[in-house]
Amino acid sequence: MKINWKLLLTGFSAAMILTACGTDSGNDNEKSNGSSGVVDETETNVDETNDTDLSLEDENEDEGQEQENVQSDMDKAALQDSDAQDYALYVLPEYTLTSEEPGRDSLYFGDDGEYFMRIETQLSADGDYEYLLENMQETLKASADTEELTEVTDEEKLPSAEGIERVKAFTVQSEDSPITGIVFEQGDLLIRLTIFDSPEAEHYNDFIQMGETIQKK
Fold it and tell me: 96 and 185 share a domain?
């Protein structure tokens, strides 16, 4: 029996070609898979960046909404004169302004009066800013029976309406709740506020917003 060498060599060559094609195909798949991995990683980074941007947008929207809510609340406030001092201010519906003694009023929250802001005013020409500031600090120390005061430096927690100058504020933690003293100048008035708030300081922003509206009658 004669071997057909030509046919055998042809078959062998075809087998080698198929093997080579298979190898190249495998290499191409590996390259393709590698390239796909890079693309997937890039897409992941883009997704993470988008998530961060969305988170910042949500946070900014929350802050903006909170500011709008404060402004909306003050839209409900009514202008009220002090009975004993020469000023007026805008008072929110849940608060009551009462004159306790000459030169000293209290702005109470709710019916029980547990949380309130004491208001004292003087004409700038007659008052002494440095004395008010020093006296305010001594009063805070005596109220909490401590020598440790913390200065309030966060501008969002200070009166900042147009015309307000020389703002200084200190806070102290009493046994039950925080007490904050603020002294500032507004037009012709020197103003001293003392805030006796809840443990969570939940009325602080209201007191500040109303205090900013104090104006000479």
Answer: yes
